[in-house]
Amino acid sequence: MKESLLPLWHRIYGTGHDQILSDFIAETESFKLHYQYGNPPPEWYKDVVVYSLYVDLFNKDLAGLDEKLDYLAEVGISCLWLLPILDSPMRDAGFDIRDYRKIRHDLLPAENQADAFAGFVEKAHSKGIRIIFDIALNHTSEEHPWFAEARKSKDNPYRDYYIWSDTDKPYSQARIIFQGIETSNWKKEGDQYFFHRFFDFQPDLNYRNPLVIIEMIRNMLYWLNLGVDGFRADAIPYLWKQEDTDCENLETTHDIVKFIRAVLDEVRPNTLLLAEACQKPAEVVRYFGTGDECNAGYHFPLMPQLFKSIAMGSREPVMHILDPSVTPAPPANAQWFTFLRCHDELSLELVYVSEEDRAYIHQQYCRQPLWNFREGQGISARLAELMDRDPQKIGLAFSMMLSLPGTPVIYYGDEFGKLNDEAYYSEQIRLVGKDDTRFLVRGRIDWDALKTAFRDDHSPESRVITQVISMLRARNQYKCFGRGDLKWLQPEVTPAEHAHAVLAFERTWQNEHIIILHNLSPHTVTITLPELEPKTIHPFGYQWIVVE
């Protein structure tokens, strides 16, 4: 193990800290001896359907989530992404972590917490559902014990776990990510400033201190020992800071990710490390390395292009973003994660959309002033709101996402058309003291009301979830969706003037061959392909056709 880690360690920290590495390697050997769970199968993350949820908003607490495992399995979910569950003051929905070894007590009582969580994971596994969760590697809460110590004095040993300066001038090229909410990346604390890329109550960790990376990996190993299958690495492009750069995607950041992956592979092979990197596809691909960094990464730029295609009634935006010249192929063992909506806004960052696309998508979809996020940089609206609360258009959007390459992520509630929650938004901005419209796309599920809605086959909720379950059953039956090739098709379309609105492609893998047809227009079209009888597709309709 030391042979594989030492070159990376030296690239990051030089040769002066080898004893820290040696001591840590001895710890990991002991961990492997006591690890009680088997390893997941190789590349399991290519074949799952991921469901992303806030435990408390989904169904009160972990016990409530346990009660809904059968519901999730019936829908077709095979992996749960638990949005932040670790101990937190909850000023940033849990991304401000106060203790990396504890779950919030409102989600799981403190008594016998480790055993209870391990039991939940084991039950989920018994139903064919794997578990991953968020771990913020870039920053902590200001209430974390490390920062509580760091702010006491300059000579406190934990001072160097964070980034401090006598002025607010360093790293001046680093953009302010929360434009319109924060005005600086520095906050005054005593007679110095500390650095933060996100909210000013989330100080950034200092990865120039080798003890920081060791402590963060120890935290990950703790949860692996309780059966967790992987981690969403939150905000990883920002880990390393360097003067006269924008402090994003730096080479040393990639070395840090390689180091973390190498440890995970050694201790528990096939643990998922999922990159949250809001960047262009060519930049995100770098976080796969040569198959030695993250196992998977979100395809952020695809998401707005799906919405642009539907708004324009044109296949071109989707076909362009997935062209190999724009989206390079990942290494063979890596995977894109795709999504329609998530716990954040419909992001329109110029990092991966053009000014023209931002203006067009914002104009088409930001239908209420309250939905505006970060001065036009995004739209805080759920999928059903963006699709005019129309079950047919919601189904079309799901069909596009579920049939294109990658592993799909479904945001909790979208499977039945959950709407924005203005009451929850108002409640949360009073709590956190910042006008963060992303709270609109969160909110609680009313299971009693939902049960009533599901009894009515004509309710919007029933019409949406019926489509989603049907698609997921098909997807879970065929591996071509998560592993297969994509080939665009150019069918004959009648009327011909609507040909641009037909998104048609085939997915193939081994002996599987499925043709997917989408009509992005409000007009009925007839589609003809050599291997098929003519297919009539209604407005905003779709068909999945298995070719024997």
Overview of the molecule:
Strand 9, helix 9 and strand 10 (272-275) form a beta-alpha-beta unit. The longest helix is centred in the C-terminal third of the chain and has 18 residues, at 460-477. Among the domains are: 139-204, Alpha-Beta Complex (Oligo-1,6-glucosidase, domain 2); 277-407 and 417-449 and 465-477, Glycosidases (TIM Barrel); 483-546, Immunoglobulin-like, CATH 2.60.40. The protein is an alpha/beta fold and 548 residues long. The chain is globular.
CATH class of the domain at 277-407 and 417-449 and 465-477: Alpha Beta
What Rg do the Cα atoms give?
A: 23 Å
List the strand order in the largest sheet.
1-2-5-9-10-11-12-16
Could you give the count of β-strands? 23
Helix segment tally: 19
Tell me about the largest β-sheet. 8 strands, parallel, barrel
Structural class: alpha/beta
Structural topology:
Layout: H1 2-13, H2 18-34, E1 50-53, H3 55-59, H4 62-67, H5 69-75, E2 79-82, E3 86-87, E4 99-103, H6 113-126, E5 130-136, H7 145-150, E6 164-165, E7 186-189, E8 192-195, H8 210-224, E9 230-234, H9 251-267, E10 272-275, H10 281-284, E11 296-298, H11 302-312, H12 316-321, E12 335-339, E13 346-347, H13 355-365, E14 372-373, E15 378-379, H14 383-386, H15 391-403, E16 407-411, H16 422-432, H17 447-455, H18 460-477, H19 480-483, E17 485-488, E18 492-494, E19 502-509, E20 512-519, E21 525-528, E22 535-537, E23 542-546
Parallel strand pairs: 1-2, 1-16, 2-5, 5-9, 9-10, 10-11, 11-12, 12-16
Antiparallel strand pairs: 3-4, 6-8, 7-8, 13-15, 14-15, 17-19, 18-21, 19-20, 20-23, 21-22
Helix pairs in contact: 1-2, 1-9, 2-8, 11-13, 15-18
